[in-house]
Design goal:
Largest sheet: 22 strands, antiparallel, barrel
Protein name: TonB-dependent receptor
CATH superfamily of the largest domain: TonB-dependent receptor, beta-barrel domain
Oligomer: single chain
Number of helices: 5
CATH architecture of the largest domain: Beta Barrel
Keywords: Cell outer membrane, Membrane, Receptor, TonB box, Transmembrane, Transmembrane beta strand, Transport
GO molecular function, one term: siderophore uptake transmembrane transporter activity
Membrane topology: Multi-pass membrane protein
Distance between the termini: 47 Å
CATH topology of the largest domain: Maltoporin, Chain A
Shape: globular
Subcellular location: Cell outer membrane
């Protein structure tokens, strides 16, 4: 690993000094405007292809590119909602040319640029796999404060809450639980297992430029865990001088019978970016603060939604040393405190139940990009994430349940994209290393206190207990070759990984393996508006610690912890997908429809074996390999309907079936917590220019939920229950006021209007906190205000 990082740093040193000759002022300029029909378009990206140079149009739809090199260049104008256009222009030193663009609407966004499907920027229509994008506009329309609130609005994706105490959540793609999906930040797999426990709710939406979701196996490009899908968080890019400030205030649990008091939830966010006049240097900064009170849904004195406090700060900087290269740096820090249970004004160990975690997450990245041969792009990157977590998972005034966890994740890699006539080649290598150290902290041993003359003179303390000390390292070499003949595109790729997992708690026991993960995709354009795609991919999960292992369910009667079987083997997947993608303008109506079938075979599938409580009420869930494996299959449907400029509809529906080959716990083959059907619907209407009305809905079908509450005759054996279906419906109204180049937006709305929310939460100190399902929020109201010059209507 050290030699690999030194190679990366040496590459920076070798190439950066060679760009000095490109800094000369040529006074070769291009100016112009971008219009659609007779309307000037603001904030359109203007890119010089084959270079890192670019800008955006201003509020009046005009742009300028200064001091270009003499020669013939291809200039591209692109923005979400319009078809991109390219023009070739020859420019000489000392001359200024005018280049204007007229863009056509693309309300279905089939020509938007995506990067996650093939590790290469290309139009969504040309991607070999389907890539769904969750845009800032959609997040704003749904009033999604954090990442987790926006993920429900993508086909095949569902967020779920898994703990009644602390709000531990995870994302499921195509019916498979969280660890089957790879979370990326700017395309890098640095989102660690420790971050994954609460991470999707940690990340505020205002730091995200967009979210790209790829369903199906992606291990051929992204390595371990990319089995169900890949979620790529692309952070805010400084594109022009801009600013935005907003305040959101709300109340959760409004008008609910027998519930505790409604709980306040407010947040403040700020974004700003500045770009130099020559577009060579830019910086964006973002900040976020949230304070959320706990909510008791059934009036038993214990929270169903935790208390949360989040403070986030981050920045992204870039500098172009020359015409064909660019250095980008990212940094953000998230500090979050959360606590669930009761007696929030007391220390954790004086509560009847307390699940409390304090996170301090620091993430940084450095990326260098260099163009060669006009269109070839070479990139080198180093990324890292450090998380410190203080925790308490305890009940009944226990002093022995404080913990401290530290996780460090580092990724270093390089990638080369070579383009030829009708073909594209991507090759690269990447090393990912993650260390995890988890301790249970020592506590005062009152039982053995030394007493003299009825006075305590000495209180012995227990030592810290090492719970986990694991290091995993994965080195991968990957490649992908794309070739296009007329209407047919074939992509063949693969990744060879060598992983090693070292567990210091078992005297340095090591598990390692070599895994080759291939992927083959076929795309055929039946018509310009109709594509069919077929793909096969292989993936794997290494036998390491996963997200849920770092969360402990706690009650007054039992405490659930997770561990791996010593003989746990690698899990392997084989996935096949086929889709039909239709996008067409029918008169004034734009219609998009996607039908996507998926089938995944899991060999040596990971399953939990439930243990019996010991004398202290501790229950161990042991991860082992299922005999006979498992299968996950189904279909995702997506419909986009845009009859005109003022109205749009997006919807998605998933039907799926998940089964083990042999019966598991409760003598059941079906996956738990996995509905056979779920979906979403969003509507957006602009009756007048500055007024917007939107609605969002989520449907969750029936699912099997294990229950281990003390209302049972034998709670240690538990029982399997089937939940009711849910339909979560919300509405939002927003109004924009123009203020001298800025926009002031006022908005308000209601989430889960009909309070389609779980009604049978377990109660009291001995409750089963894992018995939770359905929508994440009860009926909630909110209002807010934003001001900025780049606001989404």
């Amino acid at each position: 690993m050290k030699q690999f990082i030194l190679y990366i740093l040496y590459s920076f040193i070798l190439f950066v000094p060679g760009v000095k000759a490109q800094r000369l002022n040529t006074d070769a300029n291009i100016v112009g405007h971008v219009k659609s029909v007779d309307e000037h378009l603001p904030f359109v990206s203007i890119v010089v292809e084959g270079t890192t140079m670019g800008t955006v149009t201003d509020e009046t739809g005009h742009y300028r590119l200064l001091n270009l090199q003499e020669g013939t260049w291809t200039i591209k104008a692109q923005t979400l909602g319009y078809k991109p256009i390219t023009k070739k222009i020859f420019i000489k030193k000392g001359e200024t040319e005018e280049v204007n663009f007229q863009l056509s609407p693309d309300v279905l966004n089939i020509n938007e640029v995506v990067v996650t499907g093939d590790r290469n920027a290309k139009d969504r229509k040309e991607s070999s796999v389907i890539v769904n994008t969750i845009t800032p506009k959609l997040l704003t329309t749904m009033n999604a404060i954090t990442l987790s609130e926006g993920l429900n609005f993508s086909p095949g994706v569902r967020m779920e809450n898994d703990c009644q105490n602390c709000g531990f959540s995870q994302v499921r793609i195509n019916g498979m639980e969280g660890p089957y999906s790879q979370i990326l930040i700017n395309g890098r797999p640095i989102f660690s297992g420790l971050a994954g426990v609460y991470g999707l709710e940690l990340i505020p939406s205002n730091m995200i430029e967009r979210i790209e979701v790829v369903r199906g196996g992606g291990s051929a490009l992204y390595g371990s865990n990319a089995i169900a899908g890949t979620i790529n968080l692309i952070l805010q890019e400084p594109i022009r001088n801009s600013y935005e400030f907003g305040v959101n205030g709300g109340v959760n649990g409004v008008g609910i019978k027998d519930a505790g008091d409604p709980a306040q939830d407010y947040s403040v966010n700020a974004n700003a970016s500045v770009v130099s006049s020559d577009n060579k240097t830019g910086m964006s900064v973002y900040g976020f603060f949230r304070d959320k009170a706990p909510f008791d849904a059934n009036g038993d004195g214990f929270s169903e939604l935790p208390k949360m406090n989040n403070t986030t700060f981050g920045t992204r900087l870039f500098h172009r040393f020359g015409f064909r290269n660019k250095l980008t740096a990212d940094f953000f820090n998230i500090k979050e405190n959360r606590r669930g249970g009761d007696k929030f004004d007391y220390p954790e160990h004086e509560s009847d139940i307390a699940e409390a975690v304090n996170h301090d997450m620091i993430t940084g990245a450095l990326t260098y990009e260099q163009f060669f041969r006009e269109t070839d792009l070479w990139s080198v990157y180093v990324s890292g994430q450090l998380i410190n977590r203080d925790s308490y998972y305890g009940a009944e005034q226990s002093l022995q349940d404080y913990g401290k966890t530290k996780g460090v994740t580092g990724v270093a890699g390089t990638q080369y994209n070579a383009r030829f006539d009708g073909t594209n080649l991507i090759v690269g290598l990447e090393n990912r290393r993650e260390t995890l150290n988890d301790k249970k902290l020592g506590y005062p041993d009152w039982e053995n206190a030394i007493i003299v003359n009825n006075r305590i003179v000495e209180i012995p303390h227990t030592s810290n207990t090492l719970v986990a000390d694991q290091t995993s390292n994965t080195f991968g070499i990957f490649g992908q070759y794309d070739v296009t003949w007329n209407k047919t595109n074939v992509s063949v790729g693969g990744r060879l990984d060598h992983y090693k997992v070292t567990d210091e708690t078992t005297s340095g026991e090591e598990k390692e393996g070599n895994v080759f993960s291939p992927r083959v995709t076929l795309k055929y354009d039946i018509q310009d508006y109709l594509q069919v795609r077929i793909s096969y991919s292989k993936g794997y999960r290494a036998p390491q610690i996963f997200d849920e292992d770092l969360h402990i369910e706690t009650s007054g009667s039992r405490q659930v912890i997770h561990q791996n079987d010593p003989d746990l083997k690698q899990e392997t997947s084989h996935s096949t997908m086929a889709s039909l993608d239709f996008n067409k303008q029918l008169g004034k109506v734009s219609l998009g429809f996607l039908a996507e079938g998926f089938y995944t075979q899991l060999n040596d599938a990971f399953v939990n074996e439930y243990g019996a409580p010991d004398g202290n009420g501790v229950v161990v869930y042991t991860r082992t390999n299922a005999k006979g494996g498992a299968t996950v299959q189904g279909v995702n449907l997506e419909l986009n309907f845009v009859p005109g400029k003022s109205f749009s509809m997006k919807s998605g529906l998933t039907f799926q079936r998940s089964r083990y080959s042999e019966v598991q716990e409760f003598n059941e083959k079906r996956f738990f917590r996995t509905p056979n059907s779920y979906g979403y619907l969003t509507l957006d209407w602009k009756p007048i220019a500055n007024l917007g009305i939107s609605s969002s809905s989520n449907y969750t079908g029936k699912m099997l939920i294990p229950y281990f509450g003390n209302t049972l005759a034998n709670p240690e054996e538990g029982e399997l229950r089937e939940s009711d279906p849910f339909f979560d419906f919300g509405m939002k109204v927003r109004y924009n006021i123009k203020l001298n180049g800025a926009i002031l937006q006022l908005y308000g709305g209601v989430k889960n209007i009909f309070n389609s929310y779980q009604e049978d939460f377990d109660r009291g100190v001995d409750r089963d906190p894992g018995y939770i399902y359905g929508p994440g929020l009860p009926r909630s109201i909110y209002i807010g205000i934003k001001i900025g010059n780049l606001l989404n209507m």
